[in-house]
Amino acid sequence: MAPTLSLSLCLLRAVRRCALETEVRILQVLGLHPPPTPALVVQAPTCIPWEEGSAANTEDPSFLDSIFWMAAPKSRRTIEVNRTRRRAPEKLEKLKTNIDVCPECGHLKQKHVLCGFCYEKVLKETAKIKEEIRLKEGGHFNVATVETAVLYEGEKPTESDEGKRIIERNRKRPAWFPLN
What we know:
The protein has 4 helices and 4 strands; from the N terminus they run αααββαββ. The protein has helices spanning 2-30, 55-58, 79-86, 116-137, and strands spanning 99-101, 108-110, 148-151, 165-168. Keywords: Mitochondrion, Ribonucleoprotein, Ribosomal protein, Signal, Transit peptide. Belongs to the bacterial ribosomal protein bL32 family. One of its GO terms (molecular function) is structural constituent of ribosome. Component of the mitochondrial large ribosomal subunit (mt-LSU). The mitochondrial ribosome (mitoribosome) is a large ribonucleoprotein complex responsible for the synthesis of proteins inside mitochondria.
């Protein structure tokens, strides 16, 4: 009789423990945790193993586990606050005081910076000179071994131009293109 009694007591304890764990899980799902109860805390060595049957260790981690720890605003900002933040004086564009008029062409430019319009004229003129050099040499890959001198309409080669390759342009020298 004793073996059946201990077996039935063991079975009764297992059913009771299962019912308590089910009740705790239902309360956790509903958000109604049981009130804290007094417990005995003992400082023990760390070699004591943890319970292997706990449900927390057996569950797979979910992407929803960390959602509740993310920062979230407590209340929505009003439209007035949003507009004030969006149109704050420090976010407005600053007034530029470094704008000048180009003395050559009259276009606006920044101080201590080349005028974009004048720079474009220089690029076009140098592109034409490069094209004449390319035509004279017969392609891109024939590199000259001598310096190049550019002569415009009405100019004659000087002593410093001796031994240089001379490119002649059939137009008047631009004012911004120096003679040296």
